[in-house]
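Hi R.,

As promised, here are both runs. First protein below:
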Amino acid sequence: MNSAHFTSSTGNHAVVVTRVSDTQWHALEDDLVVGRGDASRRPDGRLFISIDAWHGAVFDRIADAMLTDLPTPLYTVADEADQDSTSAWERAGFTAVRREWGYRVPTDPKVTGLGSVRPPSGVTIVPAGEAEEGPLRALDSIVRDEVEAAVGWQTMPAEVLPRPAGTSVLDPSKYTVARHLDRYVGLVRVAPLTRQPRIGLIAVRADRHRRGIARALLAHALGSLHRCGTAAAWAEVNESNAAATALFEGIGARRAGSTVEFVRR
């Protein structure tokens, strides 16, 4: 394919940035790879880029090449605590548009206070792996439409963005569900990662809000993790989501980091 070349120097040798594929760029110094750039289109259609480079000058050259080759808008995410990274993206013309707080969520009911929490009247909890796939996907569709109408589904973490088929449910076995009579009304998704399980999504139908369903779902999911010997889970919450922030902080979750999403339009 055609390659774009940008040359600079880190002090000893010239650095050449070359587009090696549709989605990858390499920075070479004296025939050694000293930096890489990658581009990927997420399921919601947005184009995200990432750059891995040891030197700020190399980062800037890779960014120049990628910005020349790719259409805008372009998006990226960075650890807010990494000042070098956030400053580099700002130098490249990117602007912060949203922040996600990372929470370490305890599982011990003595800490969360969820040991005595029960589902509201008429609601039962369907454990992970036991939900019927058809009704679960129908609930996912309803929740997605409600989020889109309110704040936009693009505000959700990347792992729960809808796929081209229009669903974010990839593995039904990871979902615990709240059922009211014969209808699913809420869900929580927990990915059983080795180091720390991840709460990827917790959602309740809009017409069932403020009834304690989300707390009951969390009580069940976290209680199950605790009984299996897991001390804590991980969750990410958009800083603008006051309800989710209150829910997690109300059960003893503690902020343990934050990521910032940047865009260049």
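And here is the second one, sequence first, then its structure tokens:
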Amino acid sequence: MTQPANATQAPLDFFWFIPTHGDGTYLGSETQQRPPEFAYFKEIAQAVDRLGFPGVLLPTGQSCEDSWITATGLAAHTERLKFLVALRPGIVSPVFAARQTAALDRLSNGRLLLNVVVGGNPTELAGDGVFLPHDQRYEQAAEFLKIWQGLVTGETVDFEGRHYRVQGGRLDLLPVQTPPPLYFGGSSDAGQDLAAEQVDMYLTWGEPVAQVAEKIERARKKAALKGRTLRFGIRLHFIVRETEDEAWAAADRLISRVTDAQIEIAQQRFLKEMDSVGQRRMAELHGGRRDRLLVGPNLWAGVGLVRGGAGTALVGSPESIAARIREYQDVGIDTVIGSGYPHLEEAYRVAELLFPQLGLGGRKNTLRQEIANEFAVGFHGAKRLQASS
């Protein structure tokens, strides 16, 4: 049996995901679908807070509830949970974003994390009023972050660049964290240049270990040239069950209602409508083919047949998935941002089955061992049985 992670490995942060675009049991089907309702988001957030996940990612985009407003609501219903919400250069001004940052970080008592999202779908960006080509969006983001960083660390900002001009910008109320950490994922050279210069955590989607290692090494070298160091995280789905057979059966069931027409439409959108290098790398792992979904040991690309963004899942027993995560740790990953369908149930499976294998402190069993019930026969029950025999 695989042993839990030992003290020689780097500490691992394991975040979860709030499905603000909806949730369900089957991809590509409205059967057993859960709409994007705040009450359900709260169920997930409170569960993962109790289970020992340190934070959650809230997605951004046209199909999602706003991450800032949702996180504000959830912060009032949780105790320790951190919220990774989107900074959107080009969508909002850097000064307004800095005020939002200070307000939510103060309201949550320092539980805010920021995910810099430049965007990789020109069609959606056009709907938001952004018409810059790919590399210029990263140029704009670099200016945005310089202004934002200055404001949230208490500076008075005067800035004049190609995309922004600010005179005498300041915050009278500063965030608890100065500044809150910046997370960012971008596979292109322009994206890695931005990461090397300005962010704290560089994220990748769940590619095979060798590809992740190569991407991390490139980003690390770019950061070193600027006298900086980066931390690294990975975004993955999880299908963890007590046995391998159970897990793979669950994976097959998840996409059992996805049609070939749905796959074709999704893949055309990913490859032709979007200019994201990361999305192209995701799509090329399987090429839209059902017979090419196993892209690495326990690494399954079925989710990416129809879902944009993170499209791979680790599938298997707790022991095998833990082994795969340790392989990612070996190449530099120290943070996992996980998800699974449905997100409430899969959070429990991950915490109860996988966390012990990773040496993570999941939900504590507060059951008093001296009390007999259907889950544990305690001392009282044992003594009564002995006395009656």
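A quick note on the second one: Residues 112 and 154 are 17 Å apart (CA to CA). Let me know what you think.

Best,
J.
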